[in-house]
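CO-FOLDING WORKSHEET

Operator: S.A.
Ligand of interest: zinc ion
Run index: 270
Mode: holo prediction, single chain
Checklist:
[x] sequence pasted
[x] SMILES validated
[ ] output reviewed
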Amino acid sequence: MLICATCAVEYEEPTPAVCPICDDQRQYVPASGQRWLKLDELEQDGQHTVVKENEPGLIGITTEPVVGIGQTSQLVITPAGSLLWDPVGYLDGSAVDAVLRRGPVLAIAASHPHMFGAQLEWSHRLGGVPVLVADADRDWLGRTGPAVEFWSGSRTVAEGLTLHQTGGHFPGSAVAHWARGADGKGVILTGDSVFPNPDRRSVAFMRSYPNHLPLSGAVALRIARQLGELEFDRIYGNFNNMIISGAKTVLHDSAQRHTAWAGGDFDHLT
Ligand SMILES: [Zn+2]
Ligand SMILES: [Zn+2]
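OUTPUT RECEIVED:
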């Protein structure tokens, strides 16, 4: 098993000439070319994981130095067990111990293929827990196995913890809705279909972030309408970016703003 140095998604050997996820219009293969990494070599080079509590019941896992895109994985803990969301592309014994210490892991799931990380490796090290993959994105898997379960629409992981397919950035793009988060006001964990911006009071709706390709206004409105039916006050992105409160209004207003700009309402300002 190897991981792509740029996106940190795992692939079975022999690996393709270039990582299909990076070669896609949403990502990029760096000018220096395709590189593949092995987990044991990274460990020998001093790679390690960092575990940090974001709020009660939500643990962030990152890698130092950054591997691939450098997302933060989230471990969402419920009384019935946990969900490992957007698994990072590197893992070590201390990360596995930190996850297992918080109770049984019910499932691993990614918001979209850029965030697949080393999901099968995580599953293997956690005792074969199910890896939930949106059926619409199944062709992006670089590695598969009996742990993979395909789903579409919505998928309950535990009481008060449900995956919802929104589409957008990828057809199978999903969010995780955690009802007990944010002191019971509700949390949504997103990937790139809804991206909390650096201003912390708006979100973006993009097909590609590195290559700056927006989604249409209609899709932004569709996603905001779908998620608007859920109860939540906070949104976590996967790069330590978040909307700390009032996120439902932020989502609605951002979709309106995106649609207005993309539709030409503000062309007189350009
Ligand atoms: Zn890649
Ligand atoms: Zn992405």
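REVIEW:
The helical segments are 20-23, 39-44, 93-100, 119-125, 217-227, 247-262.
DSSP finds six helices and 20 strands in the chain.
[x] output reviewed
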